[in-house]
Amino acid sequence: MKLLPKILIISILLLAIGINPSCDKQEYVPYVYVNVQLYPDMPAHSALKTPGNYIYVDGGYKGIVVACTYPDEFVAFDRACPHHPKTKDAVLSVDSTGLFLECPICGSKFNLYDGSLVSGPSKYTPLQYTTDYQGSTLYIYNSYY
């Protein structure tokens, strides 16, 4: 009969541990419909004609950074830091080297051209948007599979 209280206590502890939310639970970037059209031949977007250049544009959750990786090839990321996307000032910016996105709050650093984590506490990469270059128009949009 002394075994029953021990089993009950252990069961309650295991249940409590299983229900307790994890500190490592990802906080996702909130969904925002994205459908942006840019025109690299126009002066406002002409930086995108040269590989290695980038621009910031409105859209997404906290803005979008668009970079030219190769001639006529582009990447686009939401500027919300994936480590804590809902924190007000956690907005990614391109650092002085022009190679990395960096969060001013947590210091997480990501490769601008593929979004991979370089350093910092984030366990996640920035939200990437689909890019499609057709003719003289660059389309940036959400795509979920």
Task: Please describe what this structure looks like.
With 145 residues, this protein is mainly beta. It has a single domain, classed as Rieske Iron-sulfur Protein (3-layer Sandwich). It contains one helix and ten strands; from the N terminus they run αββββββββββ. The strands form two sheets. It has a six-stranded antiparallel sheet with strand order 1-10-9-4-3-2, with no helix packed on it. Strands 5-6-7-8 form a four-stranded antiparallel sheet, with no helix packed on it. Strand 7 and strand 8 form a beta hairpin. The radius of gyration is 21 Å and the shape is elongated.
Strand and helix map with partners:
Blueprint: H1 3-19, E1 35-38, E2 54-57, E3 64-70, E4 73-78, E5 93-94, E6 100-102, E7 109-111, E8 117-119, E9 128-134, E10 137-141
Antiparallel strand pairs: 1-10, 2-3, 3-4, 4-9, 5-6, 6-7, 7-8, 9-10
Please state the average pLDDT score.
89
Number of strands: 10
What's the domain count? Answer: 1
Task: Return the CATH topology.
Answer: Rieske Iron-sulfur Protein
Distance between the termini: 55 Å
Class per helix and strand makeup: mainly beta
Shape: elongated
The fraction of residues in strands falls at 25-35%
- Any idea what the CATH architecture is? 3-layer Sandwich
Task: Enumerate how many helices there are, as a single number.
Answer: 1
Helix-strand topology string: HEEEEEEEEEE
Sheet having the most strands: 6 strands, antiparallel
Strands across the major sheet, in which order? 1-10-9-4-3-2
